[in-house]
What we know:
By secondary structure, the protein is α/β, with parallel strands linked by helices. It has helices spanning 14-23, 37-47, 57-62, 77-86, 101-114, 128-138, 156-168, 172-176, 185-192, 313-317, 343-357, 365-383, 398-418, 439-444, 451-459; strands at residues 3-8, 27-33, 67-70, 90-93, 118-120, 145-153, 199-208, 227-236, 241-247, 259-265, 268-272, 277-281, 284-287, 389-390. The strands form 2 sheets. A 9-stranded mixed β-sheet has the order 13-12-11-10-6-9-8-7-14, covered by helices on one side. β8 (227-236) and β9 (241-247) form a beta hairpin. α5 packs across α15.
Amino acid sequence: MSFSLGIVGAGQFAGFFAKLFQLHPGVSRISATDLLPERAERLVAEYGLTGGTHPDFDEMLDSDVDAVALFTQRWTHGPLAVQALLAGKHVYSCVPMAMTQEEIGAIIDAVRETGLTYMMGETSHYNPATVYAREKVAEQAFGRLFYAEGDYLHDMDHGFYAAYQYSGGENWKATASYPPLLYPTHSIGGVLGAWQTHATSVSAIGVVDDRRDGVFDREISQFDNDFSNATALFKTADGGSFRINEFRRVGYHPHIRESRFRFFGTEGIFETLDTVSLWHDKKGVQDVSQHLQAAPTLAADDPSLDHVDPALRDAFVSGTAPVHDRSRLPAEFAHAPNGHEGSHHFLADDFVTAVEHRAMPTVNAWVAARYTLPGIIAHASARRDGERLPRTGLRPGAGVTTRALAAASAARARRAAGGDDLQGLRARRPGQPGGVCRLGAARRGLAQYPLRSLAAAAHRDPPREQGPDGPVSRGAR
Ligand SMILES: NC(=O)c1ccc[n+]([C@@H]2O[C@H](COP(=O)([O-])OP(=O)(O)OC[C@H]3O[C@@H](n4cnc5c(N)ncnc54)[C@H](O)[C@@H]3O)[C@@H](O)[C@H]2O)c1
């Protein structure tokens, strides 16, 4: 059964997924909204979206769309996701999941309470290196995996100045200082997308920027941030460790893979370097680069990329690699543009299939928390000059709690005004035909959220009652 989808945020990234969602046979109708209405209108016109535009996010939530896809700026996702879930919509969210542990806890609670689908679109989950390492883990070829590394190397000079100007308008410098460790999912998601563990403590170092161009200036930064590069070392639950690098000032060629991973086990090692990928074991070393080589699906000068800085375009044209198994993808995707080393097709299909079958998506709220929360704690560690922080080491920030509570109150007010808009809930919990969202419990999740309980929640497997078929483990490749 197909469902309708509303796209929230019609900026630089949304069109790539609007196209895929539109092609997917599981989606019936797509609409869009943006704070800048002309962007939503452009998206609707360019992709022929039959659902048209909504004047704003609230109106979209009041409409009969079944699901929303958040393509808004990276610091906005948490409260919007909670508000959408409480309004009865399934949620696809761009990375990161949220900016604080409270927002993450609120999303997990809202998913638990509503039974709706939440998925974070982490592209590294389907990075060819992650897919390859996941296969090696399944074959137990690493022996005991005890150490890994993930790098996300994206120099500000490679398209990010233009992207932040497009995104932030006149005040773009305030937001271009987004803390690298609060955007940790491309590095952590590649490591933990293959290694079935989670982080339990972290020590991180931030490098204070010295460009002095107003970006990464604490006086200007909306995030009080002056780190442009950061490194974090995590301990894992199974006694190992992994290290991530989130670098925004780095001498690196823009047309080379920006996410790179290394995995070390007692029986084997797998590493992706800039252009080469190697599998080692005690017998020798194999160059496996060709298995991981993503083929382009679109020319870099394609008109659909006009609003994307040329330095960023490689990421938006790269298709699948031989290591990807495309057999489960809809035939409609066969010649569709892809991106981020072939991940877009899998992410779009994961979400649609999860909603259609009421099944657990790959990067569900619990997995998304494992990919996001460690970076939040790492950033706090870096702010404390590398102090090792256990997963109980942070206190919630009051400001965000207030915003999230305001979002919940707005949802409650809408319900009060419109009577029983809980009918909009598509989720049906087993044994609860009405699929009622218990707001009181959901709001409790937005209040003080001790990191210990959040971390524990993020580490547990999601509840099986999410879908009638229970969690579905898709995306093994
Ligand atoms: N590899 C990846 O996974 C990857 C790559 C690129 C971008 N992203 C993510 O995609 C998201 C979008 O990136 P982008 O470059 O398109 O951003 P963008 O700034 O170009 O577009 C965001 C749009 O959202 C709109 N918006 C913000 N708040 C809104 C609201 N409440 N209601 C309606 N519209 C709202 C803005 O007006 C803007 O047009 C970001 O979160 C980014 O982190 C992920």
